[in-house]
Amino acid sequence: MFLNKESAMERLSSMGMEDMPVMEYRPTRCSVSPNWFKEYTSLRRAFLSSLTDSFEEIAFMNLSQQEFMNLVMGKELPENTSLRLRIPLIWGGSLTIDNMFLCYTFPHSQNLDTFIIEQSNSEIVYLPNPEKKIYMTTHLSGGGVGGNATSDRLSQSAGFMMSGRGNE
User: Fold this and answer.
1) Residue pair 101/133 in contact by the 8 Å Cβ criterion
2) pTM of the predicted model, to two decimals?
3) Which of 77, 76, 96, 78 is nearest to 86 (CA)?
4) Are 48 and 82 in contact (CB under 8 A)?
5) Domain that includes residue 37, residue range
6) Are 117 and 90 in contact (CB under 8 A)?
7) 3-state secondary structure the chain
8) Which long-range contacts link 77-86 to residues 24+ away (Cβ below 8 Å)?
9) Low-confidence ranges of the chain (pLDDT < 50)
């Protein structure tokens, strides 16, 4: 499927991700290092540990204390979350924190796989490029008529972080 920026945004909108920014990219087919997975595993821990600057987004994920601690300590991802590379390795992407973001596996990561695969034969592709380290659609991050309790979630998250460091 050949897309331009407008049609790429329309396609993402049809997948419920109308607020996902995209970047235009010219893929360069390249080989991937044989030890990429070892490097990725190390980077994964570093990326998860770097999420301590993303409390607002983490607060909207409604994680349990254990899931939160495991996430920011780099131990494991919460259920139904995926780490994604903004630029795939086979297209010249790098294993760096700046090339990664976290999102829900279903439906976002699965939809992004479809979106990228649909463009696989194009000279120019449009890749997901969220502004922050965690992507959540705006319709998931807002509250209903009762509010979104963001301050409560942020306080709880900060409390979890402090208790994990032994500084209550």
Assistant:
1) yes
2) 0.80
3) 96
4) no
5) 5-162
6) no
7) CCCCHHHHHHHHHHCCCCCCCEEEECCCCCCCCCCHHHHHHHHHHHHHHHHHHCHHHHHCCCCCHHHHHHHHCCCCCCCCEEEEECCCHHHCCCCCHHHEEEEEHHHHHHHHHHHHHHCCCCCCEEEECCCCCECCCHHHHCCECCECCHHHHHHHHHHHHHHHCCCC
8) 77/48, 77/102, 80/104, 80/105, 80/106, 81/105, 82/108, 82/109, 83/44, 83/47, 84/109, 84/112, 84/128, 86/23, 86/127, 86/128, 86/129
9) 142-151, 167-168
In a domain, 167, yes or no: no
Q: What is the pLDDT of residue 164?
A: 54
CA distance 69 to 78: 10
91 falls within a domain:
yes
For residue 29, being part of any structural domain is answered with: yes
CA within 13 Å, CB half, 27? 20
Closest CA to 54 of 132, 122, 159, 109: 132
Q: What is the dihedral of CA 127, 133, 138, 144, to 10 degrees?
A: 160
Whether residue 72 lies inside any domain: the answer is: yes
Query: Which tokens sit at 31?
Result: 């080989």
Q: Looking at the 3D structure of the chain, how many domains does it have? A: 1
Rg (CA), the chain: 17
